[in-house]
Amino acid sequence: MKRILSCLILFLMLFSLYAKGQADEKFRLIHSDKLFMTKAGEEQALELNGNVHFFYGNTEFLCRNALILDTQKIARLSGNVIVKNDSLTLEADTLAYYRIPDLMNLGGRITATEKTKTGIYRWIKSNFASYDKANDILTTWNRVNSFDYQENAHIQCGYAQWDRKKGYAILLEEPFITSGTKDTLSVAAEKMEYFDQEHKLIATFNVKVERNEFHATSDFLIYFLNEEKAIFTGEPKFFSNFADAKAMEFHLFLKDRSLMRAELIDSCHIDFAEEQFMEKKNKVDADLVTMDFLDDQLRIFVAEGKVDYYFQQDQTEKKDFMINSATGAYLQANFDDNSKLQSLQMKTDIKGKYVFQQ
């Protein structure tokens, strides 16, 4: 009994000395199955093993093993490492915490989770990460995978940096985003930037947006998530089962990730078919083109400005062969619920001709 009491008194003395030296760091040890303290030269080391739980200030640390070097201001943690800092929780196999400059390096099976009062907001997984605690910046790399519950978006890339103070994230190395349910909407590019406050995504270089019924490409994309509006510039092109289009600028308007309206602005050119999956041998050139969709089907097509169109009607049992070409200031095409052309109507300054098969 005396031996146990003596060991307990020695432990309390050692720990009180260590805690005194760490007063400015606000180090608080909550629990450890085993504790060893050593001193070599100017360095004082505290080794903790088994169910380790401690605090530095308001930041909570949990792990299996920890080595805390007082003079070097370094803490090395391993085994089911968990760090809780305000609304951010970090999990990893290993962690090195450099108290000056307040930086954490994490390795192996990393998960960073941000939680709000309503529950999980977003999580990020990767093989490597660093957390600049002083500036609240999380950097992840190597097989980065993330999910945002509010935006209902999955993210994959090779490198991602998240500035939590500014509400800004940058994604590099083949970033790829899928939004909504599987096969609903996806975005790929060489570089992506997300602005949390504006709920805005900017994608740059080799941009490709895909949905079941269409895909679009460009050099630059701005996507406003709240409005579900996408603006494409830099040689944008649009492809679908019915039409291929290009212009100086595209505006796509979606609702619940479904395409509702497309606007083509300046130097518009469209190659289109009489109905889906047929040859796109008809064409329209115009200053402005709008296309309205319903239930993923094209219903109304309007071309305005300097309009020039060519339409070829193939011979069937009910229709004769015909070619109609014309110029004017306004063209409207109407389609049925299967995107099959029903009528073409041109207005204002019309000049054209019809060719029938003899």
Distance between the termini: 117 Å
Low-confidence spans: 1-24
Radius of gyration (Å)? 31 Å
Percent of residues in helices: under 10%
Main beta sheet strand tally, sense and closure: 26 strands, antiparallel
Determine the structural class based on helices, strands and strand pairing. mainly beta
Overall shape: it is rod-shaped
The number of helical runs is 1
- The proportion of strand residues reads over 45%
Q: Give the strand tally.
A: 26
User: Secondary-structure element order, as H and E?
Assistant: HEEEEEEEEEEEEEEEEEEEEEEEEEE
- Mean pLDDT comes to 87
Write a concise keyword list for the protein shown above.
rod-shaped; disordered N terminus; 6% helix; 26-stranded antiparallel β-sheet; 358 residues; single chain; 26 strands; mainly beta
3D structure, described in words:
The chain has a 26-stranded antiparallel β-sheet that branches. A hairpin with a 4-residue loop joins β6 and β7 (103-116). The chain is mostly beta strands. It starts with a helix and ends with a strand. The protein contains 1 helix and 26 strands. The chain is rod-shaped, with a radius of gyration of 31 Å.
Write the layout of secondary structure elements.
Blueprint (H helix, E strand, L loop, with lengths): L1 H20 L5 E5 L2 E7 L2 E14 L2 E11 L4 E12 L2 E11 L4 E14 L2 E14 L4 E12 L4 E11 L4 E5 L3 E4 L5 E4 L2 E5 L4 E12 L2 E11 L4 E5 L3 E4 L2 E4 L2 E7 L2 E15 L9 E13 L2 E17 L8 E14 L5 E7 L3 E6 L2
Antiparallel strand pairs: 1-3, 2-3, 3-4, 4-5, 5-6, 6-7, 7-8, 8-9, 9-10, 10-11, 10-12, 11-14, 12-13, 13-15, 14-15, 15-16, 16-17, 16-18, 17-20, 18-19, 19-21, 20-21, 21-22, 22-23, 23-24, 24-25, 24-26
